Amino acid sequence: MTRVIIAGGGLAGCLSAMAVARRRPDVDVLLVEQGEKFGGNHTWSFFDTDVAPEDRWVLEGISASHWDGHQLRFPKRSRTIAIGYNSIRSEALDAAARATLRPDQYRLASRIERVRPTSLTLEGGEKLQADAVIDARGPEPMPGLDLGWQKFVGLTYRFEQPHGISSPVIMDATVEQFDGYRFVYQLPLSDTELLIEDTYYSTFPILDEGSLRQRIEEIASTIGSGTVTAEERGVLPVVESGDVESLWQGDPVARIGLRGGFFHPTTSYSLPDAVANAALLARQSDFSAAALYRLFRQRSERLWSQRGFFRLLNRMLFRAAEPTQAYRVLEHFYRLPPPIVARFYSAQLTALDKLRILSGRPPVPLGRALSAIRSSAA
User: Fold this and answer.
1) What is the pLDDT of residues 312-365, one digit of tens each?
2) What's the CATH number for 145-238?
3) Is 233 helix (H, G, I), strand (E, B) or coil?
4) CA distance linking residue 178 with residue 4, whole number of Å
5) Please, are residues 7 and 136 in contact by the beta-carbon 8 Å criterion?
6) CATH assignment of 2-64+87-143+243-306, given 3.30.2310.20, 3.40.50.2300, 3.40.50.2000, 3.50.50.60?
């Protein structure tokens, strides 16, 4: 029987392992995670239009919250968009992985020291052999890419009284702007439970957790009296330009998740690519190390080529706008009708969509916009 080891039990690793376990009984899959549970401490969200209907089976059995629409707030534009929104918490992913995989199909609390195409070495020297190893451990340094950063701290509150927020507020950019484009994200998990995230699109990856936490507490105090029940934080790459091949240097090991460049260039959402990759893996007939490396590297390079327009938008956000005015780039975008917004979320913009996005009065100084368009246009 063919054996595949997946290194890393985050979102991408769990979805791929579960997909193989469910659809490919002829493949012996092993998921190895260094933590005590799968998924870490995260909330993954996605829009209804992000996942292809034929791939939705990948998410079956994972408890998720769903809303029929979402809200956006900017100084000169606020709207509700009737595109469904979904969120999965790490606890739900952990429960689904344990329920789907047999005990012999996963290992927790197993620190990984080295990943090779057909072997995985654990701390202490234990070596696991396989026909192929897939690296899903999260991002490495990306020296070949020009990056900005999406950084955030999120606190989940349980309020004593209903908080009154009925649908997710994806971006509230009416807050004070500093350290780049800033917005507050609010996710109503129940009538009294609310996740509040303070998010920044910044040129620096340094996360001042104390300051962000204080700002969230100030927001929460305007809602009511509540208790913090969970915390999360992150610093995610936002690619402006560069060479995707830099992610694939070193040993020819198949990569998925952020490590393989599988994330939306502007929003940094990773679940849609993780679902697509899991479904793709389960459809393969050749599970050799060389075949899987070729499969995911070629897909990474293809998506990089297809998503160049988003890197252009990122350069406008980071380079063409003054930090306190960067919100205007997104405020300008959200004038567009829901179908274009949906294709933006799913990274499937048409040529006409791109023209519509760039049309109208520029939200940033024209000279700086042109300079950003021309600069490092990889």
Assistant:
1) 999 988 887 788 889 998 999 999 999 999 999 999 999 999 999 988 765 655
2) 3.30.70
3) strand
4) 46
5) yes
6) 3.50.50.60
